[in-house]
Amino acid sequence: MVHCPDCETSLETADDIEFVEVDARTGFIKASKRFYTANCAACGVTIGSGVAGAKSNGGAA
């Protein structure tokens, strides 16, 4: 079984993970792509991340 490295909660179902979109408005990276972090739903620590492709508006404000 997979556990959160911070709080040791078992990550057994999709409800145990929270996906958060991080983009240029958040100040992470100024680009036209969608970046996501996978966080533990119990404690909020980031346990992974990824890119999900281009935004439909090309990153325009």
Structural notes for this entry:
The structure is a single chain. Strand 2 and strand 3 form a beta hairpin. This protein has a domain at 14-54. 2% of the residues are buried. The radius of gyration is 14 Å and the shape is elongated. It has 61 residues and is mainly beta. Helix content is 0%, strand content 38%. The mean pLDDT is 80. The protein has a 3-stranded antiparallel beta sheet, with no helix packed on it.
> Nearest-angstrom radius of gyration?
14 Å
In the sheet with the most strands, the strands line up as 1-2-3
Helix content: under 10%
**Principal-axis shape:** elongated
Total count of helical runs of at least 4 residues: 0
Which properties best describe this structure?
61 residues; mainly beta; three-stranded antiparallel beta sheet; 3 strands
Please specify the SSE layout and strand pairing.
Blueprint: E1 17-22, E2 33-40, E3 46-54
Summarize the structure.
This protein is mainly beta and 61 residues long.
